[in-house]
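Our preliminary data section would be incomplete without showing what the modeling component actually yields. Below, a chain of 52 amino acids is followed by its predicted structure, encoded as tokens that our downstream tools consume directly.
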Amino acid sequence: MTVFPLVIHIMKTSQRCIAKECICHQMRCLERIGEVSDRRNCSRRSKRKRGS
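Predicted structure:
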């Protein structure tokens, strides 16, 4: 199990997630980088698919 590809993937995903202000499709990426507060907000809105 190599960690490098995973780390790179997480970094790329987290950047995307933050850039899109937590689109809620990638709650996990926020969780990985420790953006728990954002993730909470996201998980609540993720149930209602609203593209605001």
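Residues 4-19 form the longest helix (16 residues). The chain is about 65% helix and 0% strand. Preliminary results of this kind motivate Aim 1 of the renewal.
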